[in-house]
Amino acid sequence: MKKTISIDTPLAELTLRKYEKPKDLSKRELVRKICLSLGILQPGDSRDVMVDVLQVMLEADDELSSTQVEKLTIKNREKHKLKMLGIAPSNVRRQLLRLRDLFIVEKVRNNYRIKEKSSLLSLFEENIEKYYLNSIMTRVKEYLKEADKSF
Q1: Distance CA 3, CA 49 (A)
Q2: 27-115 under CATH 1.10.10.10, yes or no
Q3: Are 52 and 27 in contact, with CB atoms under 8 Å apart?
Q4: Phi, psi of 64 (to 5 degrees)
Q5: Residue 16 pLDDT exceeds 70
Q6: In this model, does residue 37 exceed pLDDT 90?
Q7: CB under 8 Å to 67, separation ≥6 — which residues?
Q8: pLDDT tens, 80-132?
């Protein structure tokens, strides 16, 4: 007889980290801290192509295809003399999808751009803080109230 193990799959999760105030950072280092702060890059992670993908998207004046994002990501890594890790087209598309999941990037036809050409701060406040974080906090509070009744 097989034993069934229940797997708890979260409906949503969010990692936020607090770092020192930004001061005298290069553009790439600033984007890296944003990625770390939003939980899309892990501390000490050597696979940091996400930083280059986000930087390319932030610097773009217009919509970019995934191929253009890939080429610009490679140029950015060459410019900073970084190893060419994680630059496969499939991985670049995966990073774009992760940015879409966080409401930072949107897909328009077959191209990508910063969502609604908005500022990062307004995207964070409108999508993550007010919607995503609020829904997570509400559910956590429901569990806490239920625990208070039970114990």
Answers
A1: 41
A2: yes
A3: no
A4: -125, 145
A5: yes
A6: yes
A7: 89
A8: 999 888 899 999 999 999 999 999 999 999 999 999 999 999 999 999 999 89
